[in-house]
Specification:
Blueprint: E1 2-8, E2 25-26, E3 29-30, H1 31-40, E4 46-51, H2 55-60, E5 68-71, H3 78-83, E6 94-99, H4 107-115, E7 123-129, E8 138-141, E9 147-151, H5 158-161, E10 165-174, H6 175-183, H7 199-205, E11 211-214, H8 227-247, E12 251-252, E13 258-266, E14 271-272, E15 276-284, E16 289-290, E17 295-301, E18 306-307, E19 312-318, E20 323-324, E21 329-330, E22 335-336, E23 341-344, E24 347-353, E25 358-361, E26 364-370, E27 375-376, E28 381-383, E29 393-395, E30 400-401, E31 406-408, E32 411-413, E33 418-419, E34 424-425, E35 434-435
Parallel strand pairs: 1-4, 1-6, 4-5, 7-11, 12-14, 13-15, 14-16, 15-17, 16-18, 17-19, 18-20, 19-21, 20-23, 21-24, 22-24, 23-25, 24-26, 25-27, 26-29, 27-30, 28-31, 29-32, 30-33, 31-34, 33-35
Antiparallel strand pairs: 2-3, 6-10, 7-10, 8-9
Bound molecules: uridine-diphosphate-N-acetylglucosamine (UD1) and calcium ion (CA).
Length: 453
């Protein structure tokens, strides 16, 4: 059986932020969420988060996730942090200790580590060889290569500091032994902290051989302490995300200029131009083209959809072979059928567009049901808000709305109706008729333009 303890009590002073460090975003998600998701991909009995600084904010950010909590009110060291959680462990299970600020750890690496633990080997440690080990705890081994202890940078002798194998902090330990060893920890070291790392020497003195696994890359064990490291990890993370898209056959014109802050599913022959941001869940059909500078959040695009540059879409579904943009804004609740055209400087909100409907220029269409093949002229506005309530506009199939019309909701335009340009429509307009709601044009025959004397 396996449980995980994730240390997340630190403030992260060097972030210089009111947001606790583990809630800083990487790829659009809190650092801590990455760790929780990876941990939970190994069948866990429970996930215990040790939190302290910004406890409420950290707990709020984890609503809906299957985790339990241990509170570390004062940060007295990594050993003290884990000690807050050990009451929740079973004797016979393995505890996998992870860090809320080491977000890119790989599930496969953790599985390899956990596999090293058995009754004869109750402790296994994840290590990594670094060209520059400064700052890390060093792994001290005996002549036959058996791990003896970990020495922290601040407590190390010059010869110990030359050791290139370091402690990642990540370890797997049997519950029973972990509890016993933590109870024996002391804080007589240069930092006056209870070091989790001291349990290595305890295991050795209890006659156990401490096994170790090596991380597959430095990236997966990198911790985040400041904004520069966060930015560095963000780039690595983005590179991996884009590489996965490229591998799946998506054309990404510049892999360094496409950011993915969520999950993307893409069909065949999808093409993404530069400076595109894809957030949340994005589903792209076959032959989708996304122009430069588009920002998509929770969007589904049907086959053959073209997004022209600088369009911003959120929580919407665009039907097959539709064309959107340039400079379109499609807001939540919008669903279009196939062959819709949404042109420049058009804003749609909670609008349903039928097959082949067109809103080509400079319009606001909100809380509206637009039938198939409707044509909405330039500058048309649905006046959906009376200052208190939102009202719907319904436009029947094949209607033609003249330019610069204001449709004052609630209002219905019948199928096949034509609305004269510049109308302010406050009452329902009948099917198949021309409706005008504007001042009649007149010419004053006797009028004379004044002239300068
Ligand atoms: C620790 C290890 C070191 C290792 C390094 C890897 C110890 C004593 N040292 O050092 O061997 O090479 O990690 O990055 O374990 N935390 C708490 N409560 C505390 C103290 C820490 O939750 O009381 C959390 C921190 O928020 C952080 C993590 O534990 O996420 C590591 O703590 P930190 O103080 O950064 O340890 P290091 O000195 O880096
Ligand atoms: Ca650290």
């Amino acid at each position: 059986m396996l449980s995980s303890i994730i240390l997340a009590a630190g403030k992260g002073t060097r972030m210089r932020s009111v947001l606790p460090k583990v809630l800083q975003p990487l790829g659009g998600q809190p650092l801590l969420h990455h760790v929780i998701h990876t941990a939970q991909s190994l069948a866990l009995r429970q996930t215990i988060i040790v939190a302290g600084f910004g406890l409420e904010a950290v707990q709020d950010a984890c609503v809906g996730l299957n985790v339990s909590w241990a509170v570390q009110a004062q940060q007295l060291g990594t050993g003290h942090a884990v000690a807050q959680a050990v009451d929740q462990l079973l004797d016979e299970e393995t505890a996998l200790i992870l860090y809320g600020d080491v977000p890119l750890i790989q599930a496969g690496t953790l599985a390899r580590l956990v596999d090293l633990v058995d009754d004869a080997h109750p402790l296994a440690l994840l290590t990594v060889h670094l060209p520059d080990p400064t700052g890390y705890g060093r792994i001290v081994r005996d002549a036959s290569g058996n791990m003896q202890r970990i020495v922290e940078q601040k407590d190390a002798t010059p010869s110990e500091r030359s050791i290139g194998e370091v402690n990642t902090g990540i370890m797997a330990v049997k519950g029973k032994q972990l509890r016993a060893w933590l109870a024996r920890l002391e804080n007589n070291n240069s930092q006056g902290e209870y070091y989790l790392t001291d349990i290595i020497a305890m295991a050795v003195s209890d006659g156990f051989m401490v096994r170790s696994a090596e991380a597959t890359s430095e990236m997966e064990v990198l911790g985040v302490n400041d904004k520069a490291q966060l930015a560095g990890l963000e780039r690595m993370y983005q590179q991996e995300k884009v590489n996965a898209l490229l591998k799946a056959g998506v054309t990404v014109l510049d892999p360094a200029r496409c950011d993915i802050r969520g999950r993307v599913e893409a069909g065949m022959d999808v093409s993404i131009d530069v400076n595109v941001i894809l957030s949340g869940k994005v589903v792209l059909g076959n032959n989708v083209m996304i122009g430069a500078g588009c920002v998509l959040t929770n969007v589904t695009l049907g086959d053959g959809v073209t997004l022209l540059p600088y369009s911003v879409l959120e929580d919407c579904v665009i039907g097959a072979d539709s064309r959107v943009g340039p400079f379109a804004r499609v807001r939540p609740g919008t669903v279009t059928q196939d062959h819709a055209h949404i042109g420049n400087f058009v804003e749609l909100k909670n609008a349903q567009l039928g097959s082949g409907a067109k809103v080509n220029h400079l319009s606001y269409v909100g809380d509206a049901t637009i039938g198939a093949k409707v044509n909405i002229g330039a500058g048309t506005i649905t006046c959906n808000y009376d200052g208190v309530n939102k009202h719907r506009t319904v436009i029947g199939e094949g209607a033609f709305i003249g330019s610069n019309s204001a449709l004052v909701a609630p209002v219905s335009i019948g199928a096949g109706a034509t609305i004269g340009a510049g109308s302010v429509v406050t009452k329902d307009a009948p099917e198949d008729k021309l409706t005008l709601a504007r001042a009649k044009q007149m010419t004053l025959e006797s009028w004379q333009r004044p002239v300068k004397k």
